[in-house]
Amino acid sequence: MFILNNIFCRINKNLIRAMKKSCKPAMLGRVWAASRRALSLEHSPPHQFACCQWQAGHRPSLYYLTYRWLVFLTVTSIAVASFACQRLPRLYKGPKLELNYFKWFIYFTNWGYLLIAVQAALALAVVHRYRNEKSLNISCDDDEIQMPRRLKTPVLCRMYWLSHTVATDLAFVITLVYWTLVHDPRIHEVNALNLLVHGGNSLVMLLELVLTAHPVRAAHALYGAGAGLAYGLFSALYWALGGTDRLGLPAIYPTLDWNKPGSAFGFVALCAVVMMSAHGVATCVAAARARAAARLRPAAHDRLALPAH
């Protein structure tokens, strides 16, 4: 009996060790799979990317199509005006400079506004696609609902979702950082165009959050933070290659001066943190919108969220 007990004890110990060794990779595998799902751009039903949260039914409404055209034309016009109406500051008293219009593209504000225009164009394309999609004729009779088979989220929808997510985060951060750290009354004029690109950008994306039907995933904060870090890397390379701002100064922004690498790195890190915080705000707004729609218009909410199996 003593020998048998020893044998059983050894077997149990070996089994426990084997289970511990096998559980670690299994746990890591589950964490990796969960992370991939959280960061993926797959969402069902995909027609939510083409609909307004407050509409009835699963097909994009004519009102929402009109709204999408208005947003696209408005933000595109403002972006074009921002590029075409460049000029030296009214209070500038330095040496005479020849304005380089293409330096418009080095500024973070303009990166953000271009992305707003891109997401508006993609949103319009998504709406037109689903208004013309015959396979969306889902029967909503009480007896039986004919569902299409579950398909992967179309590339167009994924591109729109990604651009919308990053444009929202950038807009909120640009507005906050510009008016708190960058704006200098001696250089920057407070005119209509300045207010539109540094304040109207956040208002547009806030309106988008309130009206669109697709969700905002918390894990997608990494995409916005990545865009902020990408701009920080661009500014460092631009400085290393001898690039200057529109006034001939070596730093694109005074707070992002790579002649002082410590403060520049700190500013980039701060912006990445603020970007993730801004995404948290966007996630809360989208969740509150969906909850309000479910309470105020439960029938419309249920029809809009019909799953695609």
Helix count, DSSP H or I runs of 4 or more residues: 8
Q: List how many beta strands DSSP finds.
A: 0
Low-pLDDT segments, ≥5 res: 137-148
Query: What percent of residues adopt helix (DSSP H or I)?
Result: 55-70%
Order of helices and strands: HHHHHHHH
Tell the overall outline. Answer: globular
* Mean pLDDT across all amino acids: 84
Radius of gyration: 26 Å
Structural class: mainly alpha
Tell me about the largest β-sheet: none
The rounded distance between the terminal residues' Cα atoms is 59 Å
Strand content: under 5%
Describe this structure in words.
It is a single chain. The chain has 309 residues and is an all-alpha fold. It has helices at residues 2-39, 62-84, 108-131, 155-182, 192-211, 221-240, 261-296, 298-304. Helix 2 (62-84) runs antiparallel to helix 5 and helix 4 packs across helix 6 (221-240). The longest helix has 38 residues, at 2-39. It is globular. Mean pLDDT is 84; it is low at 137-148.
How are the SSEs ordered, and which strands pair?
Blueprint: H1 2-39, H2 62-84, H3 108-131, H4 155-182, H5 192-211, H6 221-240, H7 261-296, H8 298-304
Helix pairs in contact: 2-3, 2-5, 3-4, 3-5, 4-5, 4-6, 4-7, 5-7, 6-7, 7-8
